[in-house]
Amino acid sequence: MDLKAGGFGNSGRSDDHAETPEDIGADVVTNRRNVLANNSSLHQAMHEDVAPAPRPNIVIMLADNMGYMDPGCYGGGAVLGAPTPRMDQMAKEGLRLTSFYSETQCTPTRAAMLTGRLPIRTGMALASETGSNAGISPEERTLARVLSDAGYNTAIFGKWHLGDIRESEPQNMGFDEFFGLLYHLNSYTQSERIGFDPRWEAGEPLGLVEAKKGENLTEVSPLNVSSLAYVDEQSMERALAYIKSQSSSADPFFVYIPFVRTHFPSVQNPRWAGKSSKGPYGDGLMEMDHHVGMVLDTLKELGIENNTIVVLTSDNGPTLDQWPDSGFSPFRGGIGTTYEGGVRVPCIFWWPGMIEAGRSSDEIICTLDLFTTLAVLGGGEVPADRPIDGIDQSEFILGRQENSNREWVVWYIGTGSAANTIPAAVRWHQFKVHTRAYDSFQGPESYYGQIPAVYNIEMDPREEHNIAGEHDFVISAFTKIYRGLVASMIEYPNTPSRAYPISAGAS
Amino acid sequence: MDLKAGGFGNSGRSDDHAETPEDIGADVVTNRRNVLANNSSLHQAMHEDVAPAPRPNIVIMLADNMGYMDPGCYGGGAVLGAPTPRMDQMAKEGLRLTSFYSETQCTPTRAAMLTGRLPIRTGMALASETGSNAGISPEERTLARVLSDAGYNTAIFGKWHLGDIRESEPQNMGFDEFFGLLYHLNSYTQSERIGFDPRWEAGEPLGLVEAKKGENLTEVSPLNVSSLAYVDEQSMERALAYIKSQSSSADPFFVYIPFVRTHFPSVQNPRWAGKSSKGPYGDGLMEMDHHVGMVLDTLKELGIENNTIVVLTSDNGPTLDQWPDSGFSPFRGGIGTTYEGGVRVPCIFWWPGMIEAGRSSDEIICTLDLFTTLAVLGGGEVPADRPIDGIDQSEFILGRQENSNREWVVWYIGTGSAANTIPAAVRWHQFKVHTRAYDSFQGPESYYGQIPAVYNIEMDPREEHNIAGEHDFVISAFTKIYRGLVASMIEYPNTPSRAYPISAGAS
């Protein structure tokens, strides 16, 4: 039985590839459709030769701008002045992925995770600024909607950053409950910066808000340099209360906890100030680590840990431009870049009794796959009427197969939505191809001209030695992937971006 | 009871420090002498409130130029295309150190490990070239001598690189048996390089040699681009045979295995060629990993693993100038530099039943400490007639104290031997001070002028942000350490280097 839902030409290690771009696209879409036609029986079929499992509760914890090497279990922790015992413990009890990829910044990663679709398809490839009146299309089928339709209760506690127009707010995109904030964290401190005139703000941005499904947002409290310190604490209080209230429900739950840590500015919660030897960033990381532990502890206390899958990851790499208020990656670059430092992030899966404790894997997997994998595990229906780029990795995650179903990851940057938009980068096996790249959000940019750059990221993890000349077979693979994507975007046109191209990397 | 043997003013977290340089030196030396006067009872006393343990067999495995992040248990392994399951397993069964420091290159690290003395004291701060007629002074009391005098049988299988004059050869420096090679690996391929005229070589260097205590060296086979592939395999065969032959002996053994892996050129052993996806370097790393496992397996098969302490470390960071025939560090720089990439190396202690399995520590410890710690554990006599910079870390290693006895590490580079020679760098707590530094063996050099550079290596692991201006207290600490060292070198003059200052970093 073929479980490779979605994946867009990526799923098949043994696929036969057609030769023209149109054929490639059609072949892929056909593959996907065939799989998805049987989607409702996927979960059941998956378990047919092992003990049947109830649909698990699902918890996603998403760190903001946490670097690959920040957690101790990825080489940092105490080494970088901020121990992370709870994340390390989570890795010991679960599956630690070392080639897990996010998008290059907040908004596209969140969009990719909740839709399973490349941000260029959903018009969400760039973060929007406050007041830009942008947001995710109400036509998108988010993971919250898919799981909600499958009988899950759903809630989000934390940072949204997928738009501020009414129909794009979380309580209108599939979540039963929302408590949190709409924008990137630093937007809430604009009015306190030197030289800022409060008359320019015109009531934006909103503060900490809440709403139940379909309601209008209510402001709970304003956000500023003082109150930012307590956002995660407040979100956590509500998240834990929600989980406790759900534990007696007959329906499973999906809780999405997008922390405001470790995004700058790391305004210290006084209970954590000085706990690390790394300053505010490290203190914030340790606070977040503590919150990760609280979630796992609560699941154990409620006795539902064997029926709850928890995922912890980060939306992108560290904000190097903000040093010392930033994390660390052993790789090149940080947020806003397609170099490894920008997109290779920690990711831990945890499900006691179902996911082998202490497993580690360097297989390629990405944020898009969270959508498809969790939808499948939850018995939800992966949309069949649009391209889904996320791949079902449930067999891999559960240890029933050693390999990921993914051979490559593609990144688009900017507001371009044309079908022939050139991807900024692709990881394919141990290689990375770049057509243009930035060392950090704020540059400098490397434009690689007519010949894309090729790096071997196992031999050269800091992407310093461009080996395109002797590795044109990698560029051939890139071209093939690109042609397939073009074909699918001709068949299913992308949603134009509503963001204005004012962020780094706009094109 | 004070167990801090050696350490040169470093050992006492609670020491009172005198105020003049002479007093500091005197104070330290007095401290050391007081400790060492009771040295013969150290081992017994250490165990007085726990079950007495027999003196363990001691095995040191030393990798050549392996980078901090090469092993999987330090973040690399499969991530970098070369899985290291045996080193990872060793870490799971033992103690993994994440702030362990070597010297900046082969020779000084080997000298520091075998003497417990700063390479500037022994004249061994620079690697010597073939035919330079240099070597370690026969006056030095090596770990092999100390343990030999304490009743150990001793042997070395692998790379020496502490000199080629007769009295400096290993069979004359405390080892009962020697099989291996005298120089750095690439010296054996000189005669096969383009443009080399064999008439220039005049019989140097020697090949694979062997000798028993006091004998002249015998050449077993020549070394060249073909035969280099098999050196570790041949050494390992003899090392394992030696360990097996020793297991029935009433005396404990000390076996020193300085691998030729992973020094360039990584001439592939055909049995390992292509096993990694990283090319010859990765294949060599995997071969070495296999050999590490063979040693541990043999100890277990013989049933002596509970009475054998095994240490695995590297002599310095990766040879970045040789990419792709090089390892990787997440830190700045490689071999030849005092940046973290040059001197922060993997180090795993393994002693089932005595060292807690799976422990990890970021406490500062260094190669010098191996001498003192292993001498103490073996009941050997740490020399009391000369400054010993290594500190006894046995209580820390055995988990009887959480902290290392070391607060700082100092590095000297070059052939200078004057007492007031300025150290190239010091790590002190989470800070690094540099007076001059090289990004790689072959430069470029940063000379920091009149104000040393200060980096916070927890916040800034790649040493990019010089914060000397706001951290003059770190420079004060550096100055205090420097003054103490000057005083001791006035009292005990350094042995002048016999190496010619032709290597990078010579001064």
What does this entry look like structurally?
The structure is a homodimer of 507-residue chains. By secondary structure, chain A is of the alpha/beta class. In chain A, the strands form 3 sheets. A 10-stranded mixed β-sheet of chain A has the order 6-5-4-3-7-1-8-9-2-10, sandwiched between helices. In chain A, strands 11-12-13-16 form a 4-stranded antiparallel β-sheet, covered by helices on one side. Chain A contains 12 helices and 16 strands. Helices cover 25% and strands 16% of the residues of chain A. Chain A folds into 2 domains: 103 residues, Arylsulfatase, C-terminal domain, CATH 3.30.1120.10; 341 residues, Alkaline Phosphatase, subunit A. In chain A, helix 1 packs across helix 12 and helix 3 packs across helix 8. The first copy, chain A, is globular, with a radius of gyration of 21 Å. The longest helix of chain A is centred in the middle third of the chain and has 22 residues. At the A-B interface, loops of A face loops of B.
